[in-house]
Specification:
Structural class of chain A: alpha+beta
CATH topology of one domain in chain A: Aldehyde Oxidoreductase, domain 4
Number of strands of chain B: 5
Strand content of chain B: 5-15%
CATH architecture of the largest domain in chain B: Orthogonal Bundle
Helix content of chain B: 25-40%
Strand order of the largest sheet of chain B: 2-1-5-3-4
Distance between the termini of chain A: 68 Å
CATH superfamily of the largest domain in chain B: [2Fe-2S]-binding domain
Structural class of chain B: alpha+beta
Number of helices of chain B: 5
Number of strands of chain A: 18
Number of domains of chain B: 2
CATH topology of the largest domain in chain B: DNA polymerase, domain 1
Order of helices and strands of chain B: EEHEEEHHHH
Largest interface: A-B, 31 and 41 residues
Radius of gyration of chain A: 25 Å
CATH superfamily of one domain in chain A: Aldehyde oxidase/xanthine dehydrogenase, molybdopterin binding domain
Shape of chain A: flat
Number of helices of chain A: 10
Strand order of the largest sheet of chain A: 3-7-1-14-11-12-13
Oligomer: heterodimer
CATH class of one domain in chain A: Alpha Beta
Order of helices and strands of chain A: HHEEHEHEEEEHEHEHEEEHEHEHEEEE
Distance between the termini of chain B: 51 Å
Largest sheet of chain A: 7 strands, mixed
């Protein structure tokens, strides 16, 4: 009888579509055999390798870029700069949250680690050697490292390329009922306040970001293998940047070595690799190293939080106020405006 | 320069630049992509392989250091279509999610239980302390290694009987 009951229970669980049942994962077989297929495992005939030269300064004017020593290394195919991209109207790109972002810096760098030039070579080792020889002449400008500095009157404006931008605020967002909250605080038996800093964290997926861009010079079709958590949104953005119809673009997101939101925004490396593949006529692979990933890709938090709770005499919470200046970095790349977090933010 | 070594039981002799990292030799020259690159700095363990049975970070070893050595990668774990007990453990205990750290974790786990067939939980946690997982967390990875240790013990007992 007990056996029948157990079997009946098991049958009922199966009928419920697997709830309460241990299911074997379909992906395991390839992963435990070392047969996963991540973006760095993609190898195409004639494929070139790209390495990014980044800014050591948080804010600096670019006075010149000398890539002659890099170009002199055998196996180096091209050194792409912002100036070259500007000739193709590709120096800036939209972000997923309606802001803009430099693909490669032209006039100045706006954050430490910003993409300044890309070296494309026959092997990754040659590209790394050449990237070390790209000489950039910087004139350092005053840097802003906290939201408090950013909103000081007279603070230097980082995003001075944006028309009408006179301060360092990227967005301001409010939610809730201010009058009702004020009233709740006015009648509160007790108010408890806390000022705290919620430090920046990085998603740091074990697999860094990267892509292999393959533009077919005959058909004009673009196939981009990338570590993407949002392939459809990325296809739309590539179409806008490249001026191509979406059906000409195929984004292939193979096995993803973790994402955690880090692989939602679009990064300059994807755009330069794609443009380079178009201009050179060969596939181009770009894979970040860990420093690239930590210094330049999407992060989270960095909130200076100031909150108060209004409490009545029975101990019930009757009101909540939160004000939080947040650092978003050099541009707004995720959907901050649609965020459910109460926030006022500075760049 | 020429480097001669054994990998997963097969002898290889390859021409490489002396500065070639072992992980690049394995992935690019030999086309075995189960060994991953996560940090380039020996911090994450995604590139772990066994060198004469000892786990090493292949992103900070140079190719000439392989001369005359035996290398085992994730591709060498299953033998004759039969999974190694460490692979079974990771599958049974849900010791993986995205799979990127898994080859390194399995190789470290295998080396650990070969040196110490009955490790405590603390010994397992110490054993995997050079390997980072960003998805699953470590609870199930510890269970996976315990699962493999228990399976090996049963098999050895059965063999004696």
């Amino acid at each position: 009888m007990a056996v029948e009951t157990a079997e009946a229970t098991e049958a009922a669980r199966q009928a419920m579509g697997g709830i309460g049942v241990s299911l074997a994962r379909k992906e395991d077989a390839r992963f435990i055999h070392g047969q996963g297929h991540y973006v760095d495992d993609v190898v195409l005939p004639g494929m070139l390798h790209m390495v990014i030269v980044r800014s050591p300064h948080a804010h600096a004017r670019i006075k010149g870029i000398d890539s002659s020593a890099a170009m002199a290394i055998p196996g180096v195919i091209a050194v792409v700069t912002g100036e070259l991209l500007a000739q193709h109207n590709l120096a800036w790109m939209p972000t997923l949250s309606g802001d803009t972002q430099a693909v490669l810096a032209t006039d100045k760098v706006r954050f430490q680690g910003q993409e300044v030039a890309c070296v494309i070579a026959e092997t990754k080792y040659i590209a790394e050697d050449a990237a070390a020889l790209v000489s950039v002449d910087y004139e350092p400008l005053q840097a802003i490292t906290t939201p408090q500095q950013a909103i000081e009157p007279g603070a230097i404006v980082i995003r001075d390329e944006k028309e009408g931008q006179t301060d360092n605020k990227i967005y301001h967002w409010e939610a809730g009922d201010k009058d009702a909250t004020d009233a709740a605080f006015a009648r509160a038996a007790k108010v408890v306040s806390l000022e705290t800093f919620y430090p920046r964290c990085h998603p740091a997926p074990l697999e860094t970001c990267g892509c292999v861009a393959d533009l077919d010079p005959v058909t004009g079709n673009a196939t981009i293998y990338m570590t993407s958590q949002a392939p459809h949104a990325h296809r739309t953005l590539f179409a806008i940047v490249a001026g191509l119809p979406e059906e000409k673009i195929r984004i292939i997101s193979p096995d993803l070595g973790g994402g955690f939101g880090n692989k939602v925004p679009i990064y300059p490396g994807y755009v330069v690799a794609t443009a380079a593949s178009l201009l050179i006529g060969r596939p181009v692979k770009w894979i970040e190293d860990r420093t690239d990933n930590l210094i330049s890709t999407g992060f989270a938090r960095d909130y200076y939080m100031d909150g108060s709770v209004a409490i009545d005499d029975s101990g019930k919470f009757i009101g909540l106020r939160v004000n939080l200046p947040a650092t978003t970095g050099h541009s707004s790349r995720m959907r901050n405006r649609a965020s459910s977090r109460p926030a006022s933010s500075t760049s | 320069m020429k480097v001669t070594f054994e990998i997963n039981g097969a002898e290889k002799s390859v021409d490489v630049e002396p500065r070639t990292l072992v992980v690049d030799l394995i992935r690019t020259k030999l086309g075995m992509t189960g060994t991953h690159i996560g940090c380039d700095t020996s911090n994450c363990g995604a590139c772990t392989v066994l060198l004469d049975g000892r786990p090493v970070k292949s992103c900070t070893l140079l190719a000439p250091m392989l001369e005359g050595k035996k290398v085992t990668t994730v591709e060498g774990l299953a033998k004759g279509g039969k999974l190694d007990s460490i692979q079974v453990g990771f599958h049974e205990e849900h010791g993986l999610q995205c799979g990127f750290c898994t080859p390194g974790m399995m190789l470290v786990g295998k080396a650990l239980i070969e040196a110490n067939p009955h490790p405590t939980e603390d010994e397992i946690r110490w054993g995997i302390s050079g390997n980072i997982c960003r998805c699953t967390g470590y609870m199930n990875i510890v269970k996976a290694i315990q699962h493999a240790a228990a399976a090996n013990a049963t098999e050895n007992t059965a063999g004696v009987a």
